[in-house]
Amino acid sequence: MFATLLNELVALLIHACNIKQVLYKTSTNEETLRRELILKFKRDLVKLAAVLSIFFTGISVVNVPVANNGQEVQAATVSDKRKAIVSLAKKQVGKAYVSGSAGPSAFDCSGLVQYVYRNAAGVNLTRTTYTQVKEGKSVSMSNLKKGDLLFWGSASAPYHVGIYVGNGQYVHAATPSQGVRKQALSSYFYPSAAKRVLD
């Protein structure tokens, strides 16, 4: 463990020196290199924090958030992932509905779900409602948690999917005329099934 810690410290110092050398350069290519070095430095800091945690406490840090080129930072715990999913889903409200699209500027219903889960929680869901309904475990509508998936139509072959965001509301890519919306659950358009991917 000490050897691992020492290696991480050495790598961190090397990257710090590289960044210092590049900071004074201003050309376009060197600016790109500078940004890449800083990003790698941040990643190494996170790795070092995980190693230090194990070294001093014996407790492993699982799924430590890592910066990834401007994408949403992935959450560490199930609770954090649920919050991140809700937050990212709400950020898509107002964007366009385009059949076959999976972001970042337009979505269809299953594309929105796939995009949000991948970028907020690091979970790679399949692409269609027909396959997404087979993921996770079934839950009752009276026991929903934030981030659960809601399906409409046949439970085995649904035609629509959305993300439950709490307080009786969900976010979904509705129709070409409505785009991505947040709306309340309604008895006139009530889900036929709910699935929990995170547990």
From TrEMBL:
Gene3D superfamilies the record matches: endopeptidase domain like (from Nostoc punctiforme) (3.90.1720.10)
GO BP, sorted A to Z: proteolysis
PROSITE patterns linked to this entry: NLPC_P60
Residues of the NlpC/P60 domain: 79-199
GO molecular function per UniProt: cysteine-type peptidase activity
Keyword vocabulary terms for this entry: Hydrolase, Protease, Thiol protease
Family statement drawn from the similarity comment of this UniProt entry: Belongs to the peptidase C40 family.
Protein name per UniProt: Cell wall-associated hydrolase
